[in-house]
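Incident review: delayed structure delivery

Summary: a single-chain prediction request sat in the queue longer than the usual turnaround. Root cause was a stuck worker, restarted by the on-call engineer. No data loss occurred. The affected request and its eventual output are reproduced below so the record is complete for anyone auditing the incident later.

Affected input:
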Amino acid sequence: MEEISVQIKSIQEKLQILLRQQQLLQKENQKLKKDLEKMQTEKLQKESDLEGMIQQLESVKIGGTQWSPADKVLMEKRIDGYLKEIEKCLLLLNA
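Output delivered after worker restart:
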């Protein structure tokens, strides 16, 4: 009878240890979720900042007086593409 009692006590102790470990893991999991959410928010902010900087760079390039031949060709192609899109839109509106 004592042997069963000892085994039950051992099982109870092991169960208590497992429960404490589970609680610690749950706390760690919650902390990691908060950290992930914070990092995702920071990532979105940095992506937004980067997009703004890219637009500023494009504005500076467009406003610059000295363009390399490659930049001029690239800009002409972009403008031509925009004009074609505008023409398509106008044709659709007039149809």
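Verification: The mean pLDDT is 88.
Action items: add queue-age alerting; document worker restart procedure.
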